[in-house]
Design a protein that fits this description.
40% of the residues lie in helices and 15% in strands. The chain is an alpha+beta fold and 244 residues long.
Length: 244
Protein backbone atom coordinates (compact mmCIF):
# COMPACT_ATOMS: atom_id res chain seq x y z
CA UNK A 1 0.00 0.00 0.00
CA UNK A 2 1.37 3.44 -0.93
CA UNK A 3 1.31 6.10 1.75
CA UNK A 4 2.36 9.72 1.03
CA UNK A 5 4.44 11.09 3.86
CA UNK A 6 4.92 14.85 4.43
CA UNK A 7 8.62 15.41 5.00
CA UNK A 8 9.03 19.21 4.89
CA UNK A 9 6.78 22.21 4.35
CA UNK A 10 8.23 25.73 4.17
CA UNK A 11 6.16 28.63 2.86
CA UNK A 12 4.79 27.78 -0.57
CA UNK A 13 6.98 24.76 -1.13
CA UNK A 14 6.84 21.37 0.41
CA UNK A 15 8.55 18.05 -0.21
CA UNK A 16 6.50 14.86 -0.32
CA UNK A 17 8.00 11.40 -0.45
CA UNK A 18 6.24 8.07 -0.79
CA UNK A 19 7.15 4.75 0.68
CA UNK A 20 5.94 1.18 0.30
CA UNK A 21 4.38 -0.60 3.25
CA UNK A 22 5.14 -4.27 2.46
CA UNK A 23 2.70 -7.13 2.89
CA UNK A 24 3.59 -10.54 4.29
CA UNK A 25 2.44 -13.63 2.37
CA UNK A 26 0.42 -15.98 4.58
CA UNK A 27 1.70 -19.00 2.62
CA UNK A 28 5.47 -18.52 2.52
CA UNK A 29 6.12 -15.46 4.70
CA UNK A 30 7.70 -13.38 1.92
CA UNK A 31 7.23 -9.60 1.96
CA UNK A 32 5.93 -7.92 -1.16
CA UNK A 33 4.08 -4.91 -2.51
CA UNK A 34 0.29 -5.03 -2.57
CA UNK A 35 0.02 -4.52 -6.31
CA UNK A 36 2.16 -7.58 -7.00
CA UNK A 37 0.10 -10.14 -5.10
CA UNK A 38 -3.50 -10.96 -4.28
CA UNK A 39 -5.97 -10.73 -1.41
CA UNK A 40 -8.60 -13.36 -0.55
CA UNK A 41 -12.07 -11.91 -0.96
CA UNK A 42 -13.34 -13.75 2.14
CA UNK A 43 -10.67 -13.84 4.86
CA UNK A 44 -8.47 -11.04 3.41
CA UNK A 45 -5.30 -13.14 3.59
CA UNK A 46 -2.61 -11.81 1.28
CA UNK A 47 -0.66 -13.99 -1.15
CA UNK A 48 2.63 -13.16 -2.84
CA UNK A 49 3.14 -13.51 -6.63
CA UNK A 50 5.07 -16.78 -6.21
CA UNK A 51 2.19 -18.44 -4.35
CA UNK A 52 -0.65 -16.66 -6.16
CA UNK A 53 -1.31 -19.44 -8.70
CA UNK A 54 -0.13 -22.32 -6.57
CA UNK A 55 -2.34 -24.40 -4.32
CA UNK A 56 -3.14 -21.36 -2.19
CA UNK A 57 -5.39 -19.79 -4.81
CA UNK A 58 -7.40 -21.28 -7.62
CA UNK A 59 -7.39 -20.01 -11.18
CA UNK A 60 -10.90 -21.16 -12.07
CA UNK A 61 -14.20 -20.49 -10.31
CA UNK A 62 -14.06 -18.03 -7.43
CA UNK A 63 -10.37 -17.44 -8.07
CA UNK A 64 -10.31 -14.61 -5.54
CA UNK A 65 -10.55 -17.02 -2.62
CA UNK A 66 -7.61 -18.68 -0.91
CA UNK A 67 -7.32 -22.41 -0.43
CA UNK A 68 -8.37 -22.30 3.21
CA UNK A 69 -11.65 -20.56 2.40
CA UNK A 70 -12.33 -22.79 -0.60
CA UNK A 71 -11.86 -25.94 1.48
CA UNK A 72 -14.10 -24.54 4.20
CA UNK A 73 -16.82 -23.91 1.63
CA UNK A 74 -16.46 -27.43 0.23
CA UNK A 75 -16.75 -28.96 3.67
CA UNK A 76 -19.82 -26.87 4.49
CA UNK A 77 -21.44 -27.84 1.18
CA UNK A 78 -20.69 -31.56 1.27
CA UNK A 79 -21.28 -32.13 4.98
CA UNK A 80 -24.96 -31.26 4.73
CA UNK A 81 -26.93 -34.40 5.46
CA UNK A 82 -29.10 -35.35 2.48
CA UNK A 83 -32.56 -36.85 2.66
CA UNK A 84 -32.56 -40.54 3.53
CA UNK A 85 -34.10 -41.43 0.19
CA UNK A 86 -32.65 -39.42 -2.68
CA UNK A 87 -33.74 -41.84 -5.38
CA UNK A 88 -35.29 -39.84 -8.21
CA UNK A 89 -36.47 -42.82 -10.26
CA UNK A 90 -39.93 -44.19 -9.40
CA UNK A 91 -40.09 -47.76 -8.18
CA UNK A 92 -42.10 -48.92 -11.19
CA UNK A 93 -39.57 -47.67 -13.73
CA UNK A 94 -37.48 -50.25 -15.51
CA UNK A 95 -33.74 -50.16 -14.99
CA UNK A 96 -33.32 -49.22 -18.64
CA UNK A 97 -35.42 -46.10 -18.14
CA UNK A 98 -33.82 -45.21 -14.81
CA UNK A 99 -30.27 -45.70 -16.06
CA UNK A 100 -30.97 -43.61 -19.17
CA UNK A 101 -32.22 -40.79 -16.94
CA UNK A 102 -29.19 -41.14 -14.66
CA UNK A 103 -26.76 -40.90 -17.59
CA UNK A 104 -28.63 -37.97 -19.12
CA UNK A 105 -28.87 -35.95 -15.90
CA UNK A 106 -25.17 -36.37 -15.16
CA UNK A 107 -23.93 -35.74 -18.70
CA UNK A 108 -22.28 -39.15 -19.00
CA UNK A 109 -23.30 -39.86 -22.59
CA UNK A 110 -25.40 -42.69 -23.94
CA UNK A 111 -22.67 -45.32 -23.48
CA UNK A 112 -21.97 -44.28 -19.89
CA UNK A 113 -18.24 -43.81 -20.49
CA UNK A 114 -17.47 -47.25 -21.90
CA UNK A 115 -15.95 -46.04 -25.16
CA UNK A 116 -13.17 -43.52 -24.33
CA UNK A 117 -9.66 -44.82 -23.82
CA UNK A 118 -9.02 -42.26 -21.08
CA UNK A 119 -11.19 -41.09 -18.19
CA UNK A 120 -11.05 -37.47 -17.07
CA UNK A 121 -12.46 -36.36 -13.74
CA UNK A 122 -12.07 -33.19 -11.70
CA UNK A 123 -11.43 -32.95 -7.99
CA UNK A 124 -12.29 -29.33 -7.34
CA UNK A 125 -10.21 -27.40 -9.88
CA UNK A 126 -7.70 -30.23 -10.38
CA UNK A 127 -8.22 -32.50 -13.45
CA UNK A 128 -7.18 -36.15 -13.13
CA UNK A 129 -6.77 -38.44 -16.14
CA UNK A 130 -6.39 -42.22 -15.99
CA UNK A 131 -6.82 -45.09 -18.48
CA UNK A 132 -10.23 -46.64 -19.02
CA UNK A 133 -9.16 -50.24 -18.38
CA UNK A 134 -11.17 -53.35 -19.14
CA UNK A 135 -11.55 -53.88 -15.41
CA UNK A 136 -13.19 -50.48 -15.04
CA UNK A 137 -15.46 -51.12 -18.02
CA UNK A 138 -16.59 -54.41 -16.47
CA UNK A 139 -17.56 -52.62 -13.26
CA UNK A 140 -19.36 -49.70 -14.93
CA UNK A 141 -22.78 -51.27 -15.48
CA UNK A 142 -23.12 -52.61 -11.91
CA UNK A 143 -21.81 -49.29 -10.61
CA UNK A 144 -24.37 -47.32 -12.64
CA UNK A 145 -27.20 -49.52 -11.42
CA UNK A 146 -25.98 -49.10 -7.85
CA UNK A 147 -26.30 -45.33 -8.31
CA UNK A 148 -29.86 -45.83 -9.55
CA UNK A 149 -30.80 -48.11 -6.68
CA UNK A 150 -29.16 -46.23 -3.80
CA UNK A 151 -29.86 -42.68 -5.00
CA UNK A 152 -26.29 -41.46 -4.40
CA UNK A 153 -25.36 -38.71 -6.85
CA UNK A 154 -22.17 -38.16 -8.86
CA UNK A 155 -20.71 -35.24 -6.89
CA UNK A 156 -17.46 -35.81 -5.00
CA UNK A 157 -19.40 -36.61 -1.84
CA UNK A 158 -21.90 -38.76 -3.74
CA UNK A 159 -19.16 -40.82 -5.38
CA UNK A 160 -17.55 -41.24 -1.98
CA UNK A 161 -20.87 -42.48 -0.60
CA UNK A 162 -21.43 -45.01 -3.38
CA UNK A 163 -17.79 -46.07 -3.03
CA UNK A 164 -18.21 -46.61 0.71
CA UNK A 165 -21.46 -48.50 0.13
CA UNK A 166 -19.80 -50.78 -2.43
CA UNK A 167 -16.85 -51.38 -0.11
CA UNK A 168 -19.22 -52.24 2.70
CA UNK A 169 -21.17 -54.70 0.58
CA UNK A 170 -17.99 -56.02 -1.10
CA UNK A 171 -16.52 -55.64 -4.60
CA UNK A 172 -15.58 -59.33 -5.00
CA UNK A 173 -13.05 -59.79 -7.85
CA UNK A 174 -13.68 -56.36 -9.41
CA UNK A 175 -10.25 -55.02 -8.50
CA UNK A 176 -10.75 -51.74 -10.38
CA UNK A 177 -13.81 -51.10 -8.23
CA UNK A 178 -11.81 -51.68 -5.04
CA UNK A 179 -9.11 -49.23 -6.13
CA UNK A 180 -11.43 -46.50 -7.43
CA UNK A 181 -13.75 -46.77 -4.43
CA UNK A 182 -10.86 -46.49 -1.97
CA UNK A 183 -9.71 -43.34 -3.75
CA UNK A 184 -13.20 -41.83 -3.67
CA UNK A 185 -13.69 -42.69 0.00
CA UNK A 186 -10.35 -41.15 0.99
CA UNK A 187 -11.54 -37.85 -0.49
CA UNK A 188 -15.03 -38.20 0.94
CA UNK A 189 -13.76 -38.77 4.48
CA UNK A 190 -12.28 -35.29 4.29
CA UNK A 191 -15.29 -33.60 2.66
CA UNK A 192 -18.26 -35.40 4.27
CA UNK A 193 -17.08 -37.97 6.83
CA UNK A 194 -20.46 -38.62 8.42
CA UNK A 195 -22.16 -39.30 5.11
CA UNK A 196 -19.38 -41.65 4.01
CA UNK A 197 -19.39 -43.62 7.27
CA UNK A 198 -23.19 -43.83 7.14
CA UNK A 199 -23.03 -45.19 3.58
CA UNK A 200 -20.42 -47.78 4.60
CA UNK A 201 -22.57 -49.09 7.44
CA UNK A 202 -25.53 -49.20 5.09
CA UNK A 203 -23.47 -51.29 2.68
CA UNK A 204 -22.60 -53.81 5.39
CA UNK A 205 -26.30 -54.70 5.58
CA UNK A 206 -26.69 -55.04 1.80
CA UNK A 207 -25.46 -57.09 -1.12
CA UNK A 208 -24.66 -55.75 -4.59
CA UNK A 209 -24.44 -56.66 -8.24
CA UNK A 210 -20.75 -57.51 -8.01
CA UNK A 211 -21.94 -60.57 -6.10
CA UNK A 212 -25.33 -61.20 -7.72
CA UNK A 213 -24.22 -60.47 -11.28
CA UNK A 214 -26.09 -58.66 -14.05
CA UNK A 215 -28.08 -61.01 -16.26
CA UNK A 216 -29.19 -60.47 -19.83
CA UNK A 217 -32.65 -59.31 -18.81
CA UNK A 218 -31.51 -56.62 -16.39
CA UNK A 219 -33.06 -53.80 -18.41
CA UNK A 220 -36.62 -55.02 -17.77
CA UNK A 221 -36.29 -55.31 -14.01
CA UNK A 222 -37.90 -52.53 -12.01
CA UNK A 223 -36.07 -50.14 -9.71
CA UNK A 224 -38.10 -51.38 -6.77
CA UNK A 225 -37.25 -54.99 -7.56
CA UNK A 226 -33.53 -54.21 -7.66
CA UNK A 227 -33.70 -52.35 -4.36
CA UNK A 228 -35.33 -55.38 -2.75
CA UNK A 229 -32.71 -57.76 -4.18
CA UNK A 230 -29.91 -55.55 -2.86
CA UNK A 231 -31.63 -55.46 0.56
CA UNK A 232 -31.88 -51.68 0.42
CA UNK A 233 -35.43 -51.95 1.68
CA UNK A 234 -37.76 -54.55 3.08
CA UNK A 235 -39.64 -56.65 0.50
CA UNK A 236 -43.11 -55.31 -0.24
CA UNK A 237 -45.98 -57.45 0.96
CA UNK A 238 -47.86 -59.04 -1.90
CA UNK A 239 -51.58 -59.61 -1.40
CA UNK A 240 -52.63 -63.25 -1.22
CA UNK A 241 -55.28 -64.75 -3.47
CA UNK A 242 -57.94 -64.65 -0.72
CA UNK A 243 -57.26 -61.09 0.43
CA UNK A 244 -59.67 -58.29 -0.38
Amino acid sequence: MWHPLLVEATGKSMVVVTTIVPWTCHACGARFAEAAGGICSVCRRVTCPACLFSGWTFRTAKRGQCRVCRLSMWQAEYSRAPHDDRMTSPRHWTLREARAQYLRENGLGEDGGYGPRWVRIKIGPVPIVFPNTNGRRAALLPHDLHHVATGYDTTLAGEAEIGAWELGSGCRHYYAAWILNLGAVSIGLFLAPRRVVRAFWRGLRCTNLYHLGVDAGWSEETVGGLRERLRLEEPQERPSAGST
